[in-house]
Structures are given as structure tokens and as C-alpha cells.
């Protein structure tokens, strides 16, 4: 087999010589936010293009003590509502000169392994997105001091010192319950998703509290094992099979849109009931399919772009790293 020839990379020193500047000026020219004159940057870029030069990010990370990498932990990839968040998150990270390292938290790769993996790669930060992260994880003896800073996206942080950027669940559920109460619904139900993740959303608690404030103390609680349309359908099927028409809920709030879409399919297709005439449905997140004529789902939209901009600002240091709660907006459609 013919041995592959090694192509020598052009160095920053060679670019500096061609541009008539110092090596450190070349480094600054390729470092976002660095102080450099327009003329110097122009000369460096022209020389770099002529010599086919690209910076060695590994070498730069050793010099700057920053890899510009951010680890993103996700443990519910089956939830399709994660995709719009991940699309926006990776786009905004790249625009800020950062690169996302996506890590799948699962039965074979838990949080401790993921944190050790991220630390060994010297990431600049860790974003916990849709993960059930607990205090005891941080006290694991395998984890030493100096771990990268952590942030929680789209869920409340359960850990002191780990800030979260989250949609205002209290405001959201107040708006939802006010809307449902004004429409005349009085027999509410709530479907929660994966137990380990639901606790960090607080949506069920706010839902029951606001109904109690309106004199409705009984809220039927349904549970789905995971965030999927199939799980939503299974949960509502079990409830409807065990209840009688005269005693059923008249509105079902689902913890997210995917559960709501699955529940709606089962209510209409499996039991021949009408939405909203027999049972009204509400979701959360304003998933793309929710606005289609097939569903026309009433839901609540999180301020995705603002949340992601805030968490990136905390990572790069332009915003103080502290828990931030942002308002979303109610989207009323035909399902209520």
C-alpha cells in the first residue's frame, strides 16, 4: 500500500512574515473580539488566503486555556420538540465562535461519565438540556475540583450554583388556567411526562394551584412514561377506558405538545370523541405540527431565542451567570 504523503501546514509565523506583522497579530486576527486594527487584519487575511493558512485551534486552546467548545447534555432524544431548540442553540453557539459537543445521556453513559468526558476534553462550559441532573452527581468522588461551569436550559435548576434559563412556568400556567376557566371548563386534567424530568418543569404544580385558587380542588392526574405521542395516547387511553362519560374531565392540559398530539389522536380516533366539544386539549411549546389544521392545538410558546441568547451570554461573560426566568406567550387555537 502506498504511504500517504503528509502535507505540511502553513504556520502563523510564515503568515506573519508575509504580512509584515508579528505572530501574535496573526493570532489576534483569527480570535473573535481581539484588539487589532482594520489594516493589520486585512494584511493578515490576505497573506493567510495566499498561503492557504487556517489557524490550529488545538494549539490556540493551549495558549488561551479555552477550547471554545461547549458540551450539551441531552437525555430525551425521542422528544421531537428538542430539535428546534438544538437547531437554534447550535446556530447561536457557532455565531459566537463556539462549537457544540452533543452528548447523549443514557443507560450506558450517565452524567458522571459525561462530565468526566467533557472535562477531559477541556470544554469551556456544559449546558444541561432536558436532563434530570441531581445534587448527588456533583458529589461523586470521581469528580474533582475545576469542573467546567454548568448551565440548565429550559428547566429549573435543582442545584445551588448552577444557573438556569427557563420560561416563566408560573406566568404560563396562570394564563392557561385563566383562559380555560373563562371558556367554562371546570373538570381539568393534567398529563405529565417522564417523572425524572417533569419535576424540573413545575407545570403540574402551578396548574393545580391556579385551579385551586378558582375553587376547583380536584385535578385528574395522568402520567406518561416518556415524552412521545405514543406515550400520550397510551396514557389517555388508560384513563378513558377506566372512566365513565358523565365523570370525565372536560379539558386536558399536557406537559408538552407531543403528548397533547398523541392524546388528541387517541381521543378522536380511538374513542370517537370530539375536541374540544367532549374534551378540550392544551399543550406546551408550540411544536410545528400543533398549528396544522389537523390539530389546531392551543399551546404556550417558550421564548426560545431569548433563552438561548441569555445562556450563551452567560457562557461568554457578557451576562451575569444567574438564574433567569423569561416570559413566553399563549397561543389560542381551536382545541379549546
Automatic annotation (TrEMBL):
Indicate whether DNA repair appears among the record's keywords: no
To which species is this protein native? Rhizobium hainanense
CDD domains, per this entry?
HTH_LacI, PBP1_LacI-like
Q: Which Gene3D superfamilies match?
A: 3.40.50.2300, lambda repressor-like DNA-binding domains
Q: Which GO terms describe its molecular function?
A: DNA-binding transcription factor activity; transcription cis-regulatory region binding
Presence of keyword Transcription: yes
Q: Which domain of life is it from?
A: Bacteria
Q: Which SUPFAM superfamilies match?
A: lambda repressor-like DNA-binding domains (SSF47413), Periplasmic binding protein-like I (SSF53822)
Question: By what name is this protein known?
Answer: Transcriptional regulator, LacI family
Q: Which Pfam families match?
A: LacI, Peripla_BP_3
